Amino acid sequence: MQTSPQKQQLHDRGICVVIPTYNNAGTIADVVKRTLAQCNDVIVVNDGCTDNTKAILDTIDGIVVVENASNKGKGTALKRGFKKALELGFAYAITLDGDGQHYPEDIPLLLDANINNPGCIILGQRKMEGAERSKGSKFANAFSNFWFCVQTLHYLPDTQTGYRLYPLHKIHGLSLLTSRYEAELELLVFAAWHGVKIIPVEINVYYPPRAERVSHFRPALDFTRISILNTILCVLAIVYGLPCAILRLLRATLVTVASLLTYLIECFFIITPFALLYAPFKKWRRNNNNQMHPLMHFCGKLTTRILCLLGIKVTIRNPHKETFEKPAIIVCNHQSHLDLIVQLSMTKKIVFLTNDWVNHSHFFGYAIRSAEYHPISMGIDALFPKLKDLVNRGYSISIFPEGTRSRDCSIQRFHKGAFLLAEQLGIDILPLVLYGAGKALPKKGLYMRCHPITLDIDQRIAPTQLLSTGDTLQERSKWFRHHYIKRYGELSNEMEQHV
Length: 499
Fold this sequence. Notes:
The protein has helices at residues 5-12, 28-36, 53-58, 74-87, 107-116, 135-152, 183-193, 219-278, 292-309, 338-344, 356-359, 365-370, 380-392, 417-425, 437-440, 463-467, 473-495; strands spanning 15-21, 42-47, 63-68, 92-95, 121-126, 164-167, 198-203, 285-286, 289-290, 314-317, 328-332, 350-354, 374-375, 396-399, 428-435, 453-457.
């Protein structure tokens, strides 16, 4: 049976569903079957059920069941479910309750939020309008929201919801996790202290008539336990949460300052002095090579190594054994200023088409011009003879077809210039797929982030293959954009399991 695109996307991103259950015999079969309609990977934690829940689960194919010999509480059930998910190789777990309160049909909402916010906790914010809730339930949620805000200085509208998506490698405080309902609040508090973003997404909720509800909440005992937990968390917020926040800020500042210093030193004390010293003697070409390019390549490799030391791992993957000996039009998606540095670290036989502000920059414009990087604003007619000369000397031309950086790292519209040049020059197109540069250095962001960067060197596309992608330049550019969207999605799915 063919897997639906949504199920395949969940699997590709390493997302499973964990359902803890205790004596939900009346609803568990419906919940599990509806969940299987949305996701193939379902783990059910039987938390010592004393009704016929176990017999019901035994009749459902395609699920993994984790058994507790006796009832240990929701916190312990979640811990067992997370442990099993990690053993099976999953990176994320969606949790929902077995009592029918949550709609498995809302799983796509959490999936979309995960795609847009990888590595974050996605919180299913219940739509409470018109729902029949007890005063105790309303008070418990308001009580929990208030103390979460006090302990983390962040406000969330629904800290009691059990419908969530957790990044399993970023769950903190599991060893201290309390055993029952309050465990879910504890998970959010520890996540916030460690800088894990929590993103609310509205979901539907079903509250059955009071006579049909199965509730294991014991108001007096559970409120007492929650109050004790909040007291402990308030103390930990000062002695643990605050130091964590300070250390994160110091680390981000250190990485940003060190990266900026690396750029300034290379620009003002290496690249620009070299350009100024040798330009008057016109020693740029030796054996048809511009001596700026080995220097730029060296600085690119040095910068990527320094980024790795600072916690920003840069990985270049070359499955097709590309050597860059044969000139090509290099096409790459554009995310940040780091894109150029990563490409420079690959080879010295590369030049870039740039924006005007780069070419005319007071800081590095002279070096850029000395390296024969030309502004795209010159137009194809003026650029062609210059680029033809570079290609004849063995250089590849790198172009960002989007023209500008994307704020959210999505693939924007491709301009036709790169494909026109490839056609006129009669050379291959070499696609590069970049992930993570825009997350490590966000557009208009104040700080560098310790986010991995991966560059995939794709297979070359020959001129004859290029012509087969469409009859016009517009059709070819659209084909390439769709190709990049697909490849970037595949790379994102792979990398974001480890974010």
